[in-house]
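Hey,

The postdoc asked me to send both predictions to you directly instead of through the lab channel. I've kept everything plain text so nothing gets mangled by the mail client. Protein one:
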Amino acid sequence: MKESTGHVDEVNGDDGTAGLNDHLKKNWCAEIAAYKIIVTGGHDEAWLALMRMGRPLWWSTITTQDGLTESRATEVLNLAANKLMLGVPPDVDTYNEATMFGVASMLCRLGVRIHPKSMLASRAAADLMAILAYVNYEKDAYISSYASDPVLALGAIKVWYELADGLAKYILPEFKKLLLGGDIDQGDAGGMTACVLLLLAMDKCAMKGKPFSEIVMKYEFVPVLDFLKVVEGEEIKIFCKGMVRANDEKIAFITWRSRWKDWYMGFTHFVQLQLERNEDTLWYLLGRRAAGIFPRNQNGADLLIPIFWRTPRVAVADDSEMKTNSKEGMTEEIVSLMLVKVETRSTNEFEMAKSVLSQLCSRFVFGEQDNKPRRTH
């Protein structure tokens, strides 16, 4: 790291682009360092940092005239939820046609794109404060995007669970109606279904077995092991009929899973990945409580879930194996990821093709294959 001397660096290049790029790079590095502090710091500090992301409305709500913050988490979450319901609180009487049955909460959490030709495109941004993410008529480029707002995503969670049957009775049927009507550029239906299931699993971990009415949803990070147990289903066998050496594989799997006991995760919504896929992007996603959706038609994984690890050891994660070296008195934060591949399979298939599984390797998604640069779309 170069020591700062307090002097302005000389701009290289006649057009000044080199100096501008250096300035942008420094700003990006500072931003990522801030996200890293948010992730590895205290819960209260992280909550206040989330309030500063997205719309200025959230921060102004919890700030007094003297600039001092107050404990107004519930008030902010109520405000965010109301914005997704045309300004009214989620209630049995407000899940109606005027509020589109709370479907904006689904758009917010899934980060889906809306067709400009749809009447929903203007309503979602102007009336329901859902994500402002349009695609052009050829469906191959963004017009504009404002997709990551952690506080609004927390408000969307309230819309989902304020009523015990709100999601199943009102939101999902309306969302299905929009999909069948072609109002949403949904891409692969299987991928969208996977996102919903992963969000439900993450919500269950965050609630820690308590009813939604008894908690303030600040969405603190939870152990990766807790998430894996929810996804697997503790009452369901982890092997299917037809798989060989089921008992041996189960023991090996439990042993492998135990290695992730010091890892944590947490996401409230999905965003379309447009950033460079590296360690900085993972800290960015963690800091904003987000998971990522890869561009369409890309070989390999479809979804990315960031995770992190902090303990008084130095660790390096390499695919499913982790190597650790003890260093007394040193704490190191490590960031890694889960890659999710969504495949449509018939009910009589019990094993995913080996070629598909190999594409989940991080080297395949992020690196080069056969010494040739891999093209991404």
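Protein two:
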Amino acid sequence: EVRLRVGKRILDLQQSLNEALEVQRYQAQHDLLTGIFNHAKILNILEKELYRARRQNSNLAIIMGDLDHFKKVNDTYGHVAGDAVLAEVARRMKNNIRLYDSVGRYGGEEFLLVLPGCSTEEAIIIANRILESISQEAVMFNSTPIAVTISLGVAMKAVGDEKTTTAELVQLADAALYKAKQNGRNRVEQAAEPSP
């Protein structure tokens, strides 16, 4: 009887330890506010997908998104409302990507999406779907509608491109995002494709 109780106690402790490790692993890889991947994890995913795309000689698209005038949301409605907006934007992004795509919080109000095996045309369609899902329906916070828009930049690693690095791909998407901001915000812009 005593050995049975000790054995059960050991099993319970082992299960508790496993659960704690699982929580710790989740927290190390996810942004706790939005539930999507954090900066380090999304870059790790991008690195792996870029390597796979080279090995399989396939496309890889990324999308960099940045909420327009987000500081104004925080200043007008408060940081709790701003956090609610970020969480809702992340949810809408997840709902508008394919099962094998990944989305992460790149920083502040910036997001990075990794789209393996995705053509430029498909990436632009996905980016526009995300843009519409965010801009066409206000985020509700305590019964207050908060209108939000996003600017998105799309960049590609095309078939045959063996030299574009993760940093260069992110830089291309960021430049396209900057172009979207310069051209009036609430829009999608495409980066010039790197030469193979």
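Summary for protein two, as requested: The first helix runs from residue 2 to 29.

Thanks,
C.
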